[in-house]
Amino acid sequence: MSIGMILLVVIALLILFGVLQRVLDRMALTDRQALLCVAAIFVGGWLPDITLGAVTINIGGALVPLIVCIYLFFHAGTAKERIRCIVAAVLTAAAIYAISLFFPADPVAMPFDPMILYGICGGMIAWLLGRSRRSAFIAGILGVILADVLVGVINWSKGINQAVHLGGAGALDAVVLSGVTGVLMCELFGEIMERIASGKAGEGAIEGGDRT
Hints:
The protein is mainly α. Helices cover 73% and strands 4% of the residues.
């Protein structure tokens, strides 16, 4: 089982035990909706790809995550957040593509799967640009998918007749890792900033009490 599939199982267990309740609330997802998404990605990853001309779409690695992103996008709080989602996704895709240029075309020669690095980097970049958990999740997932599209467009522009595989060939790991990493970074640093802010507020209250 790949790292992406293992991570999906872990996420499902955390949802069942209520550990991710606050994160899901901030992303406008219920436990049932989140579990359904996780199950759809997991099962879809094993189903045959959808072929549309020179493009093949993996159901679990591209189609289902894209549908989730669309749902979250239209449930974003403000128009400003929607614009931030789009900008973050495009910049994340460009960054992932730039990172891929430093690796050999044949991943077999590498000591690790580059998709894992793409996923982690994509999540980190999505967090830096998106900030909110919802924006980071959307940017992380769309960034990986758009990076695949960008590679295909560049190859076609060079006359290379190569099929574009969206979400397949290990990209499911990158999609899952990117989205999860983006949300995890937002949650981690958001919690740290909240604790710092509450600590300063507490100190201010104590100082104010000393003056009276």
